[in-house]
Amino acid sequence: MQTLPKERRFETLSYLPPLTDVQITKQVQYILNQGYIPAVEFNEQSEPTEFYWTMWKLPLFNARSTQEVLGEVQQCRSQYGNCYIRVVGFDNIKQCQVLSFIVHKPNQQSGGGYRY
């Protein structure tokens, strides 16, 4: 058994290699398929002690396609490229956030995942 290298981990899916564009699209599609309400959030840091992120616009209550959600991610990234950006899914029955994952990290090298 091998120990993972010591490095900063970020929320759900952080122990996997960076998500490709196709994998990000599939995760967003999962949010929509489950009936969760997607939202885009950003923050200058992603510290475990940082509980509040800024929401990019309102949650996407009427989103029906992945392209709508990913379009908002791209708009957020173009304005706040120096911030961490994540997609979250809210369950309107349980009234809580049920999943989130990082789709953009600041100063990220291009070529593979997290590029929307």
From TrEMBL:
Gene3D superfamilies found in the cross-reference section: Ribulose bisphosphate carboxylase, small subunit
Gene Ontology MF terms: ribulose-bisphosphate carboxylase activity
Gene Ontology terms: cellular component: carboxysome
Alphabetical keyword list: Bacterial microcompartment, Calvin cycle, Carbon dioxide fixation, Carboxysome, Photorespiration, Photosynthesis
Intracellular or extracellular location(s): Bacterial microcompartment; Carboxysome
Biological process terms in GO annotation: photorespiration; reductive pentose-phosphate cycle
Occurrences of domain Ribulose bisphosphate carboxylase small subunit (ranges): 9-106
Transmembrane segments: none
Keyword flag rRNA-binding: no
Pfam families cross-referenced by the UniProt entry: RuBisCO_small (PF00101)
Superkingdom assignment: Bacteria
Described function: RuBisCO catalyzes two reactions: the carboxylation of D-ribulose 1,5-bisphosphate, the primary event in carbon dioxide fixation, as well as the oxidative fragmentation of the pentose substrate in the photorespiration process. Both reactions occur simultaneously and in competition at the same active site. Although the small subunit is not catalytic it is essential for maximal activity.
Other facts: The basic functional RuBisCO is composed of a large chain homodimer in a 'head-to-tail' conformation. In form I RuBisCO this homodimer is arranged in a barrel-like tetramer with the small subunits forming a tetrameric 'cap' on each end of the 'barrel'.
Name the record gives this protein: Ribulose bisphosphate carboxylase small subunit
